[in-house]
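User: Sequence in, structure out. Go.
Assistant: Echoing your sequence, followed by the structure tokens.
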Amino acid sequence: MGRELRHCVNPLAGISIPTPLFQVPTEEPCTTSSVVLTSTTRTSKSQKLMVASPDLLMPWNLFACDYLQEHSPTTSEFKAVWDNIDPKTKRKYKALSKQKKSAAHLTSNATTPTSNNASTVTPLPVAPISNGDGDTS
């Protein structure tokens, strides 16, 4: 009884890869001058990628929601962008923030009873319970 030999079979043997129908266009060749080297381990807060919160109505966050659709800066890079945008754009986002905050305030007041209208709530009447023979207890 000898040892049984196993033969490895290449499942891709005999398959031919066809040539592509067209050449895929490539971007500008990557050179060291066009690459910004960054650490793969981002540890400090300023090196983390900027993330906008959909619930936060601050002007800088509303700007970030728009800016991040086309850019992916770190938090420190975004801070530099926000600090250096033109005053007209900053005023636009401050006005938008004010508008959204007042709309949110009106919405929350419409759904949450305040102390003034909480006192006007009338309790529902409670019907007497009948035991089935016409007697209510």
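User: And one key feature?
Assistant: Confidence is low (pLDDT under 50) at residues 30-40.
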